[in-house]
Design brief:
CATH class: Alpha Beta
Radius of gyration: 19 Å
Low-confidence stretches: none
CATH superfamily: P-loop containing nucleotide triphosphate hydrolases
Strand content: 25-35%
Number of strands: 12
CATH architecture: 3-Layer(aba) Sandwich
Structural class: alpha/beta
Mean pLDDT: 91
Number of helices: 9
Shape: globular
CATH topology: Rossmann fold
Distance between the termini: 42 Å
Helix content: 25-40%
């Protein structure tokens, strides 16, 4: 699905990501973790085509991003960014329908029945059907994040990229979003998600990519990546890693 070869990229003359290589196979649920400034968002921007590599390449389905048109890419890849400060002047339904634009035909200027049907399904999946007449600015943070996710699902992508979808949300909305992503992944949607919460990453992601100062530190299953030695070193802190009771997942606890 995704193949990143010796990727180096950044902003202006500054390289944020340096010589990184890894792959994401079709149907995987992969988490990008690492301290602030380690390059997680930059990699999402490179995979989505919003940031061009200074060196190396990003391929999706065997085809380089640089050789893929914006409309073609938008039918394959959907992105949920961190909630922007600006509030779109749309109702929830209007906003979700924007996800159908990449699928419009050459002379199509309004949504068709298929578009409305797909948008309604996306709103039902994310549990926001009751909000479809509300304005985006009237929503809570959790409701707004679910709306952004619904718009992405309306694109009917093969690959879903999410940049900190649980940031600033209460634990209820965090779990709801992660469980929804887990369910979508089981339906064969490939997911790459940036997460700051190591416990959510351990509980829901099948594989983790750990970044440190713009370089790849470790790739593997959560049990292989989330160890006391590695996390203490990369995050420059003191934590304990313990097995969660009743489930085969590791959880991180700070040492007070």
């Amino acid at each position: 699905m995704i193949k990143i070869n010796n990727l180096s990229c950044g902003y202006g003359k500054d390289l944020v990501v340096k010589e990184i290589s890894f792959e994401v196979k079709k149907g995987e649920f992969v988490g990008l973790i690492g301290p602030n400034g380690s390059g997680k968002t930059t990699i999402i921007r490179a995979i989505s085509g919003f940031l061009s590599p200074k060196k190396g390449s990003v391929l999706i389905g065997g085809k380089a991003i640089s050789a893929t048109g914006r409309k073609e890419l938008a039918t394959k890849v959907a992105v949920v960014t961190q909630s922007p400060e600006a509030t779109p002047p749309f109702s929830v339904e209007e906003f979700v329908l924007l996800g159908r634009v990449p699928h419009w035909t050459k002379f199509q200027f309004l949504e068709a029945g298929k578009d409305v049907e797909t948008a309604e399904k996306a709103m039902a999946l994310t549990g926001i059907s009751r909000l479809k007449g509300r304005k985006i600015g009237e929503l809570s943070g959790g409701e707004r994040q679910l709306t952004y996710l619904a718009r992405a699902l309306a694109q009917e992508p093969d690959l879903l990229l999410l940049d900190e979808p649980t940031a600033h949300l209460d634990i209820g909305h965090q779990v709801r979003i992660m469980r929804l992503l887990e369910s979508l992944n089981k339906e064969t949607l490939t997911i790459v998600v940036v997460l700051h919460d190591l416990n959510l990453a351990s509980l829901y992601c099948r594989r983790l990519v750990l970044l440190d100062k713009g370089r790849l530190r470790k790739v593997g299953r959560p049990k292989e990546v989330i160890t006391e030695e590695i996390i203490n070193e990369v995050y420059e802190t003191s934590i304990r890693v313990k097995e969660a009771p009743g489930i085969s997942h590791r959880l991180v606890f700070p040492i007070l």
